[in-house]
Amino acid sequence: MNIPENLYYSKEHEWVSMDVDTATVGITAHAAEQLGDITFVELPEMDAIVVQGGELAVVESIKAASDIFAPVGGIVKEINTELDDAPEKINSDPYGEGWICKIDDVNDSEVNELMTAEQYESFLEEKD
Question: What is the spatial distance between Cα 107 and Cα 60, in angstroms, rounded to a whole number?
Fold first, then answer.
């Protein structure tokens, strides 16, 4: 399975890419695979204040609707509106065009609580 090295991961299968104090957030390829074909994404509100572990978005697939939790807290500064018309991008490119939102004012200590790619890979192996 493709687990990019330069990202951070949560136990709820979200990924984070950091650029100074802004986090780009999405769900992992593992989560997308478990969900099946994604048919709809309920994106967070712009300028919403999110807390680490709080609800961020909802992804609906042919199997179920699943909450997406914020791997880090902060303020939603950008949302991927392309997912409104093409939610399947999460399945086809979870670490690229399938990103969900960008969060500003992220606390470094929350990022440090997340897993590295190596830790996430071990986490997935333990669950199997």
Answer: 29
What pLDDT is stored for residue 21 in this prediction? 87
Nearby residues of 2 by Cβ (< 8 Å), 6 or more positions away:
29, 95
Residue 48, amino acid: A
Two tokens, residue 63: 């199997």
Q: Strand 14-19 relative to strand 8-9: parallel, antiparallel, unpaired?
A: antiparallel
Radius of gyration of the chain (CA): 13
* CA atoms of 123 and 12, how far apart (whole Å): 11
Class of domain 11-123: mainly beta
Domain ranges in the chain?
11-123
- pLDDT less than 50: residues of the chain: none
The pLDDT of residue 96: 97
